[in-house]
Amino acid sequence: MAYHPPVARVDSLFARAGGEPWFIALVDRFYERVEADPVLRPLYPEDLAPGRAHLAQFLSQYWGGPATYSEERGHPRLRQRHFPFAIDAHARDAWVGHMSAAVHAGGLSEADVNTMIEYFEMAATSLVNQPGSD
Description:
The protein has 7 helices and no strands. The protein has helices at about 15, 20-35, 50-60, 70-75, 80, 90-105, 110-125. The mean pLDDT is about 90.
């Protein structure tokens, strides 16, 4: 069965947030924190630019924006793309903490902030592939 990415929606969180510029700024805020994190930084490649662009495209698409991510990279396959990295509960918590701070700094409504953080907590938990570190 072929993957069909979502079509951009006018009533989406993507639209309410302000579109692609908001998601690029979100990712910039997030990566600023990752760059200084001794737990997460080693999990990322030296050049962070491609990952920044991919994350902004993925999040834009996920929250109702254009399907640029899928058009350029195919199905997101989050678990498969993250499997090569040793992700434990400590790394998951650090990632969620940085992303939550970035979301909170974005000026969204409380409902949209809660929706995003709930998704990020679920998604990050699904990527844990190492035991321990609780």
